[in-house]
Every structure is written in C-alpha cells, then in structure tokens.
Amino acid sequence: NAGVTQTPKFQVLKTGQSMTLQCAQDMNHEYMSWYRQDPGMGLRLIHYSVGAGITDQGEVPNGYNVSRSTTEDFPLRLLSAAPSQTSVYFCASSYSRGGEKLFFGSGTQLSVL
Amino acid sequence: GQQLNQSPQSMFIQEGEDVSMNCTSSSIFNTWLWYKQDPGEGPVLLIALYKAGELTSNGRLTAQFGITRKDSFLNISASIPSDVGIYFCAGQLDFGNEKLTFGTGTRLTIIP
C-alpha cells in the first residue's frame, strides 16, 4: 500500500516561477487536503476537497490553487512563487468526510529564493 | 487564524520517564486528536477523542478530552527511544466541519 504519495520531495524555485506539487492516494478516500508547516506555527490548512469536483479554501489559501478531477489526485499549484511560500507542504487524505483522521504524505520541502 | 497552544514547546527526558503534555484553546472543540511526526515524515494519528471527559489509550499513550472542551492532554508512560518526535494536538469545531486546527507542537527528545 502506497498510501499518500507526494512529489517532489524537495524543490527550489525562483520568485515568480510556477509549479505544481503532486499528491496521489490509493485508499479511495473522498477527503483530501493540503497543509503547510512552518516553524512554530504548526500545520495550517491551505485547501481541501470532499470529493472529485469539489474544493474549498482553508486558513491560508492565497497564492495557491487546487483542483480535484479524480478521487485519487489533488495537485497544489503555485502560480507565482514568493519567498513567503517557503515551507514544508503536506498532503493528507481521510476516509472520514469530516477529515479528522488524516493520513499524511511524507511532505515536500519548498524553498523560494 | 485560530491556533491551539501546546505546552511545553520542548521536552528533554531520560528513557523510561513518563511524559505529559497538553493543548489548550480559547474555543470549544467537539473532537480532539493527537498526531506524532517523525523527522522527515508526515504526522501519524495516535489517538482520536470525541466526548468530553473521554480517556483513551493506545499502548503506552493515554489521551484525555478535557471536560471544558477547551483542552486535551497526552501522557506517555515509560518512554522509549522511538517516542522521539514532535507531538501535535488538533481540534475540530464540529464533526464534519472538515477543518482541523493544529497546535504548535511539542518536541520530545530522549537523553541517552
């Protein structure tokens, strides 16, 4: 069982560049979400989805876009990277629509110069 | 945005010692969860609590849902080296609310 798979593991971007962080899960979970983790801040919710075709904003959505065309995939797009987006990004999924019992990927460490 | 306050921020203990940490909020939560994060990995769910006053165990770990609904506690008995990591609490306002609020974490280090 792969669980939640995130790629890439590490990424360095220049300010203004765009990129997509990939997330895929093989557990047939309806709920998927993206968090960012910054020192001393815990995990903050960026966007989430309760099923294919449905997305909603979390606590810190600015600068990020998401889409959910399939149950398995939930990519996170940075349209114009900024240094403030330097962080570790985690994708998570849950079999519970409430999203409380999360299964996390291993993270993407992103640096924006 | 709302955050949960965890204390202590870090702990340095010897193997075999018991550990206690807590999480407090200014808001009432109806679900409390505890996650552990190993270095370079994503958090893993340890315990979920759904009822005020509830006490739930998972091996050497015991967590409690505070009766005020504004706090939760995690205890680890007889710590071992693999307990090292960052422990996060998380709260959910309403079941099905779909948004978890995470605490700032307690980093546990075991001194040889």
Helix-and-strand structural type of chain B:
mainly beta
Q: Supply the helix-strand structural class of chain A.
A: mainly beta
Mean pLDDT of chain A: 93
**Radius of gyration of chain A over alpha carbons?**
13 Å
How is the topology of this model organized?
The complex is a heterodimer of chains A (113) and B (112).
Chain A: E1 4-7, E2 10-13, E3 19-25, E4 31-38, E5 42-51, E6 54-57, E7 64-66, E8 76-78, E9 87-94, E10 103-104, E11 108-112
Chain B: E1 5-7, E2 10-14, E3 19-24, E4 31-37, E5 44-49, E6 55-58, E7 61-65, E8 71-76, E9 85-92, E10 100-102, E11 106-111
Parallel strand pairs in B: 2-11
Antiparallel strand pairs in B: 1-3, 3-8, 4-5, 4-9, 6-7, 7-8, 9-10, 9-11
Description:
The complex is a heterodimer of chains A (113) and B (112). With 113 residues, chain A is mainly β. Helices cover 0% and strands 51% of the residues of chain A. Chain A has no helices and eleven strands. Chain A has strands at 4-7, 10-13, 19-25, 31-38, 42-51, 54-57, 64-66, 76-78, 87-94, 103-104, 108-112. Chain A is globular and about 35 Å long. The mean pLDDT of chain A is 93. With 112 residues, chain B is an all-beta fold. In chain B, 0% of the residues lie in helices and 53% in strands. In chain B, the strands form two sheets. In chain B, strands 2, 4, 5, 9, 10 and 11 form a six-stranded mixed beta sheet that branches. A five-stranded antiparallel beta sheet of chain B has the order 1-3-8-7-6, with no helix packed on it. The chains are: A mainly beta (113), B mainly beta (112).
